[in-house]
Design a protein that fits this description.
The protein is α+β, with helices and mostly antiparallel strands and 142 residues long. The chain is 46% helix and 20% strand. The protein is built from three helices and five strands. Helix 1 packs antiparallel against helix 2 and helix 2 runs antiparallel to helix 3. It is rod-shaped.
Length: 142
């Protein structure tokens, strides 16, 4: 049974694509794209040397260009704060006296337990306070 070279390149592309899905290693996907480029080269009638050179060139180019961009994007923190991170820096209204021992505030439409960042400081009902951090279910304010 004589199978054309482009079929072998496609088999190699699928063979590299399967571990990509299992391991989530993007480099395997780039090698798979290189194998597809080798299949196209074979389909156009070029020899084995040209096919291997195209495979290597496309794979190396993708790894050299795409990998640093992907690494840079994966290292960035999300720009949209969610959960308790979104509450830091917001203002709240004191409902019950807040001091170093505790109190209650209204933050983002909800009632939260709170305590003052500076234990010697106290905030009276109606005052505006800033949320410094969230410690468990307690807002630390100043």
């Amino acid at each position: 049974m004589d199978i054309d070279a482009w079929v072998w390149w496609l088999v190699a592309a699928v063979g590299l694509g399967i571990p990509l899905v299992i391991t989530a290693m993007p480099e395997l996907g780039m090698l798979s794209v290189g194998a597809v480029a080798g299949a196209v080269t074979a389909g156009l009638g070029f020899g084995m040397v040209a096919q291997v050179v195209v495979f290597a060139a496309v794979s190396v180019a993708l790894i050299a260009v795409v990998r640093p961009i992907a690494a840079r994007h994966s290292a960035q923190r999300p720009q949209l704060a969610t959960g308790v991170d979104a509450l830091r820096g917001r203002q709240a209204v004191v409902l019950e006296r807040v001091d170093g021992d505790g109190g209650r505030i209204k933050l983002a439409g909800e009632v939260w337990s709170a305590r003052a960042l500076d234990a010697s400081r106290a905030f009276e009902p109606g005052e505006q306070v800033d949320v410094v951090e969230i410690d468990g279910a307690t807002a630390v304010v100043m």
